Amino acid sequence: MKSTILRTVLLAFSILGISLLHYLTPLNLHYLHDIFQRFYYLPIILAALWFGFRGGLLCSLTVSVVYAPHILFQWGGGLTLEMEKYLEIVMYNVVGGVTGLLAQRERARSSELQKTAQGLEESYNKLQTQSERIMTIEEQLRRAERLSTLGEMAAVLAHEIRNPLGSIRGTAEILRDDYQPGDPKHEFIEIQIKETERLNRVVEEFLRMARPQPTEMVRCSLREELETIVTLTTNDAKARKIKLSLEPPAGDLFVSADGEKLRQAFLNIVINALQATPEGGSVTIATRQADGNHEIRFSDSGPGIEASALARVFEPFFTTKPDGTGLGLAITKKIIEAHGGTLEVESQTGTGTTVIVRLPVI
């Protein structure tokens, strides 16, 4: 709006100024009047470019009305003598109308091209979004297919492993009754029973990979859970001659979680880090708060993971270790996501690997 008013005022002043030059210049200076006549084309063309056909024509008519008295009263109004000046007025209107029409068409064409470009950009964005959705759906389908296979295998394992484990545990409990507490054999049988229970839990977790179970959430201290994990893995780290360190936060951090599952997830990550770190290396656990989440970073000084393998680390049964099952990170990711968190792996060949767990703050 302001620019329109400014342009209109500029045109008015230019027409007024050129007209004053005509009226105030003596008639004997013909060459100056010829020059001033041509000056009128400037506001006419500008009006046509700025305001289109109507603007150009209105400006040329205004110039005609202002210039006509100069011809009629100052030059005497001789039709034959001043025919050139009358024709100049006609040309003002022709130039104003034609220039305005061409400018208006060009403006309309530019607007159409802009709308077309905007439509193409929107179509491109929609296609890109749809492509991303298709890729996501394909990945979900592939994952569902793998989980379906996993479910079938879990059913077979449940039948082939859990029944013998039950028999082993029952036999061990019978044998335990023959020995008093404190007897070395009694302790060995207790270990056998505990290991049998542990194997049974492993099978149950394997089943949950394909058939998620409800999780009981309670208030858990991240500091305590991480300290427990460090305690459990310290002997393994010493045996491998690896420095395992925990950098706890200044204060305690609390999350809503199933403590046993959370420990299992952290334990899987730390064990993977220790197995990937060479002798003399280090594994560091650090915590901080970021963007409304507790962030736990498990960093090792191992050889890192190649880009091709990094994209598949969460796939069930994918592993880079000769004796690995490929289920550790897949189970860990499922546990973390069940707690409303995210799991991310950052790694480059030769620079080690960092596993980042983010859990929502209570």
From TrEMBL:
**Keyword Iron found:** no
Q: Which domain of life is it from?
A: Bacteria
Decide whether keyword Secreted is in the record.
Answer: no
Recorded catalytic activity of this chain's protein:
ATP + protein L-histidine = ADP + protein N-phospho-L-histidine
Where is the chain membrane-spanning?
6-27, 39-66
Q: Keywords, A to Z?
A: ATP-binding, Coiled coil, Kinase, Membrane, Nucleotide-binding, Phosphoprotein, Transferase, Transmembrane, Transmembrane helix, Two-component regulatory system
Q: Which segments does the entry list as coiled coil?
A: 103-147
Q: What PANTHER family does the entry give?
A: PEROXIDE STRESS-ACTIVATED HISTIDINE KINASE MAK3, SENSOR HISTIDINE KINASE
Protein name (Swiss-Prot/TrEMBL): histidine kinase
Which organism was this protein described from?
Answer: Oryzomonas rubra
